[in-house]
Amino acid sequence: MTDGTRAIETDPSVCYRHPGRQSWVLCQRCGRTVCPECQILAPVGVHCPDCVAETSGGVSWRPANNVVPLEKPKRRRTRQPGRVRSMLAGAGGSGGSPVSQGVLVVYAALFLVGLLTQNLPFQWLAGARGYGWQVWRFVTAPVSYYATPDLSILFALLSGVFFWLTAPQLERMLGTHRFIGVLLASSIVGTAGTMLSGTTAYGLTSLLFGLFAALLVEVWGDPRLRSQILIITGINLLLSLTMGGAGLPALVGGMIGGAGTMYLLRVGPDRGWKPRTPVLIVAGVCALLIVLSVVRFGILM
After folding, report:
1. pLDDT value at residue 11
2. Strand, helix or coil at 204?
3. 3-state class of 292 per DSSP?
């Protein structure tokens, strides 16, 4: 293996055999990224050509320049269910999800500190009306929670569980950088939407529904999976509104941020955009919402 190949394999966004092609699919055996032309349907998930050759070698595969165009839709339909089902089935897990773990550790720690300090973290980190000029709140609001020794403990715990059932697998699927982008956009848009509505933003609602929306964009081409994600999102919507928290503005804002970011990351390479173009678009929208929030409710009266 050449040094160039090693460098390519460290980039989770491109196929290890075709560095000019972006893909979200990983080989279930070695974890390398494979484009649609290199994906081989195996009994469990998708394998790369090298792994098939190293194991049984019994699965037929043809190079990209010999693939019949009519076979592409069939391969696309068969690979996605296995990938997403394994993601949904593998709830939680710690391997390869440092950002998800970090968010939950900070969330739990701040909640415990809040119980012991009369909610000091909430006072400094939540997206409160009149404090929009403290721009860090647009990022820290999701990890803050109004902690009281009553049912809020149960609600905070359930939010953390739902996040843990979704975030780690999506982080492994997207890669760290793209996952962080989805989280930041969901947090900023959700917090800004809540503040613009005149209420306080806090809790994991915006992040959780931002991840649901990003996953929905990813599986939209498969009707069955799309229905499953919509049902899961609907159930969590009812639970979220019942449990309380930041409410509908954070939920809707988080979904807009997550879905919008995921969509731009997917269509950018197909349209020949530079890698930084989707980042600049998302950053511009987030900056605009922060400015609007500061102008409307950003100064403490």
Report:
1. 65
2. coil
3. helix
